[in-house]
Structures are given as C-alpha cells and as structure tokens.
Design brief:
About 70% of the residues lie in helices and about 0% in strands. The protein has about 80 residues and is mainly alpha-helical. The longest helix has 17 residues. It starts with a helix and ends with a helix.
C-alpha cells in the first residue's frame, strides 16, 4: 500500500474510536510490555531502523508514530 494511502486509512480508522478506547489501549500496551518486554523487540527494531534512515525531504513517509498508532488500534480491535 502506498505510504500516503496508509496515512489516510489510519486517519479514517481513528474516527471509529473514542478517547476511552485509546486510554484502554495504552494501558493494555503497558500491561503487555511489563509482562513480556521481549515480545516488543520487533517494535524497537522498527524504531532503530527509522532513526537510522536518511529522511531527506520525503514528507510522505510513514513515521514510527503511524506504525505505533496502528498497533494500538489493533489492540482495541482484539478486545471487540
């Protein structure tokens, strides 16, 4: 999927969630991280890769924040 399309999909998905859903997802992420931090190594690898890349003037790039937001929304979807 093209990077800008990914951003649009994420933005439209956010309108389906409440602040309480996001609060719950952050708390659930924290619980999972405390219980099994080794399972989050792939996320840290994504962050390290993102930080090591030359971004240049590419404003269309998906950020680590976009990837993490998608992960939090997937946690909410697991609950439903």
């Amino acid at each position: 999927m093209k990077q800008s399309t990914k951003k649009l999909v994420l933005n439209s998905m956010l309108s389906d969630y409440t602040v309480n859903d996001l609060v719950w997802a952050f708390n659930e992420w924290q619980r999972r991280y405390i219980d099994a931090p080794e399972e989050f190594e792939s996320q840290w690898e994504t962050i390290r890769q993102f930080l090591s890349e030359d971004k240049g003037d590419n404003n269309d790039e998906i950020s680590v924040g976009h990837e993490q937001a998608a992960y939090l929304l997937s946690i909410i979807d697991e609950r439903e």
